[in-house]
Design brief:
The protein folds into two domains: 157 residues, Nitrogenase molybdenum iron protein domain (Rossmann fold), CATH 3.40.50.1980; 104 residues, Rossmann fold, CATH 3.40.50.1980. It is of the alpha/beta class and 297 residues long. α5 runs antiparallel to α6. It contains ten helices and eight strands. A four-stranded parallel sheet has the order 2-1-3-4, with helices on one face. Strands 6-5-7-8 form a four-stranded parallel sheet, sandwiched between helices.
């Protein structure tokens, strides 16, 4: 059957008007919501990102599940915390059998705190490469964003300028978030704090706080009665007002210290609530609110 010229022209016009097929997104898996949230900001619509650890989980101890391996088997990039914190990710990556997966160590470029000169079993769960909780200084979020921008640009050169522009803008947002929390925490009457685990040195360093003791006598070891008695003496002598504690630890020690020394327990997870853009920086408002015991300005 012979097609009319008008039909052919109409068909050609419809083809031209049809939307172009969307370019494939970079598929990214991150160890934590914090890394996923930063990635969402930097990658924008050009990436698809998910995270492994739930926000309230102890990041040191994540169960390796087959569903995680399946997810990573389809990914192009994996974002690791590094510094030995998320060693469980190695089991997920190995189990994924994804030979094309690129692994990004997001600790690159960060100034690392608490690098031990030596390591022994007596030190508990000490990290030989330094304290790995670097994302808890919001200024390090900007460093991580630039590391991600480089990785995304390599995977998708067509959007390289966009990735780097968003990382630069996010770096400025991180600086603003630091200033906002710093101004709020400046109103604390006492600059000394307790923490349960050594999750918080970067946070303390960022905002001029001094961690004068930890509820754990050494990382990963529950407190003894003797150690808690020593902590009570420190609290009274230094007039410490706040214990910053992760939600996955027992409340017993905090209740004891509140009763014996009048300390207030400020609970906060080290990780943000979701893998979406904005969640990472919003989490600093949550931590600061817990620290000051009320709304942030």
């Amino acid at each position: 059957m012979k097609l009319s010229r008008s039909f052919l022209l109409a068909s050609f016009a419809a083809i031209l008007a049809a939307p172009a097929p969307a370019l494939a997104k970079i598929t990214v898996v991150a160890s934590t919501n914090d890394l996923a949230s930063i990635a969402s900001t930097v990658g924008g619509d050009a990436i698809e990102v998910s995270s492994i650890a739930k926000p309230g989980a102890d990041i040191h101890r994540i169960e390796v599940l087959p569903s995680f391996m399946v997810r990573v088997s389809k990914a192009q990039l994996y974002l690791k915390i590094g510094l030995g914190l998320d060693q469980w990710a190695d089991g997920i990556i190995d189990g994924s059998r994804n030979s094309k997966l690129k692994i990004i160590d997001c600790s690159q470029g960060v100034t690392i705190l608490e690098k031990p000169s030596s390591v022994s079993a007596a030190q508990g769960d000490v990290h030989p490469f330094g304290n790995p909780h670097y994302w808890l200084d919001p200024r390090n979020g900007g460093v991580v964003a630039n590391t991600m921008a480089d990785a995304f640009a390599t995977a998708d050169p067509a959007h390289a300028a966009d990735f780097h522009a968003r990382a630069a803008a996010f770096d400025k947002e991180c600086q603003a978030a630091w200033k906002k929390s710093n101004d709020a925490l400046a109103k604390l009457p006492v600059r000394q704090i307790l923490t349960y685990h050594r999750s918080w040195p970067y946070y303390a360093n960022a905002f001029g706080l001094e961690v004068v003791g930890t509820v754990e006598p050494v990382p990963g070891i529950p407190p003894t009665g003797k150690h808690l008695a020593e902590i009570v003496e420190i609290v009274k002598a230094r007039k410490v007002k706040v214990l910053l504690q992760e939600p996955y630890f027992s409340d017993d020690a905090g209740k004891f210290l509140a009763r014996e020394a009048g300390i207030r327990v400020a609970k906060s997870a080290p990780s943000c609530d979701g893998p979406t853009a904005g969640s990472y920086l919003a989490h600093f408002d949550d931590i600061t609110r817990a620290m000051v015991g009320g709304p942030t300005p």
